[in-house]
Specification:
With about 375 residues, this protein is mainly alpha-helical. The two termini are about 50 Å apart.
């Protein structure tokens, strides 16, 4: 028979590996003291918070220092670029000047080809040293060379002067525009300052007017108050004089009786005192009130005496009850002490039984090492 290799079932091995990984993760969680113990380490958290704040502060200071350094480097690079541009411009100007003076196209050997001239320029070489193949200028050629050179130099000078004049004109135009802008700014500032001065003068005038108005109001109010005080003083003086000179100060009953109309009641507006009948009625009422007040005082005194006697009796009974309660408490405490002593003796006897008779086989290190080997 042929041997057939059936595929191995990997699900069992996968399940075993998954359970082993879960067991390892569970051990890591359970045996981790920091995750197992309840509560928080406030000192460690505060220390971490302070360290984080210090680190953030250091990072902010570092970023600030980096920003300042970047600005300085940027300014240095800008300054170096400006200096390099100025050096390049100076070199370019010098090179252009050198080209225009020392390396002109008209002085080259190919000037007749480049500039459309007839023949070439003359060179300072003796004719004896020139061979037949070195002939550049023939007799009768380029007769107006000197005149042409002078005209070319004049034209170059005119072009340079025109460029200089044009450059000066541009500089003057730029300075003129800058001067106009400065004048416009100065005019704007002057108008703004004049407007501010005018507003300040207006405000000052308004304040002065308001101060004068307030002073006038204050003076008027002071005069009005003085006049009111004088009028009140006159009225008070008149009232006092009327009171002193009228019959109201006399306490006699006759001043209130109208002689012409004896049947009518007394005129109370001209009388300050009382009649004899009214005074006798008032005295009788006052004596009755005094008698009633003395009777109430006697009643209150008797009630207070009874209440004090009742309080004294209740206090005496409370002291007796407290003494009985303390005796009972002392007896219960003695009984509890005896019971606790009996329990202590029994517990000590039980502990001796456990130590000497029951737990005689002490566990070895293997017994303790079998724990915490699994999370289950």
């Amino acid at each position: 028979m042929y041997k057939v290799n059936f595929p191995v079932d990997q699900s069992i091995e996968t399940a075993v590996e998954r359970r082993q990984a879960a067991e390892a993760a569970r051990k890591a969680r359970i045996f981790n003291t920091r995750l197992r113990v309840m509560g928080l380490d406030l000192d460690a958290l505060n220390k971490q918070t302070q360290e984080k704040k210090h680190r953030e502060g250091m990072e902010r200071e570092r970023d600030k220092a980096f920003d300042q350094m970047r600005l300085k480097h940027h300014e240095a690079l800008l300054q170096r670029d400006i200096e390099e541009r100025k050096v390049r411009e100076a070199l370019h100007a010098g090179l252009t000047e050198y080209w225009s003076i020392q390396q002109r196209v008209e002085d080259s050997r190919d000037a007749d080809l480049k500039c459309g001239m007839r023949g070439a320029f003359r060179i300072n070489v003796p004719e004896a040293e020139l061979g037949p193949a070195s002939m550049q200028i023939f007799q009768g050629e380029d007769i107006g060379e000197a005149q042409r050179r002078r005209e070319q130099m004049k034209q170059t000078q005119r072009d340079l002067l025109a460029q200089i004049v044009q450059k000066e004109r541009r500089c003057m135009e730029i300075r003129h525009r800058e001067m106009l802008a400065e004048k416009e700014l100065l005019q704007h500032d002057l108008s703004w300052r004049q407007k501010l001065d005018a507003e300040e003068e207006g405000k000052k005038a308004v304040r002065v007017t308001l101060d004068h108005y307030n002073q006038a109001l204050a003076i008027e109010q002071a005069e009005r108050l003085k006049e009111a005080d004088r009028r009140e003083a006159r009225e008070n003086l008149a009232e006092k004089w009327h009171t002193l000179t009228s019959a109201i100060m006399t306490d006699g009953w006759d001043a209130a009786v109208n002689r012409l109309e004896e049947g009518k009641p007394a005129a109370t507006d001209r009388w300050k005192g009382m009649s004899p009948e009214q005074l006798r009625a008032i005295h009788r009422e006052r004596e009755a009130q005094c008698i009633e007040r003395q009777r109430w005082r006697d009643v209150e005194k008797n009630r207070d005496a009874a209440w004090n006697a009742q309080l004294l009796e209740a206090s005496r009974e409370a002291q007796q009850e407290e003494s009985r309660t303390s005796k009972l408490r002392r007896a219960k405490r003695i009984q509890a002490d005896q019971f606790n002593m009996q329990l202590a003796k029994e517990q000590e006897a039980h502990q001796q039984y456990l130590d000497k008779e029951l737990y005689t086989n002490k566990p070895t290190q293997d017994f303790f090492s079998q724990f915490k080997t699994t999370s289950r």
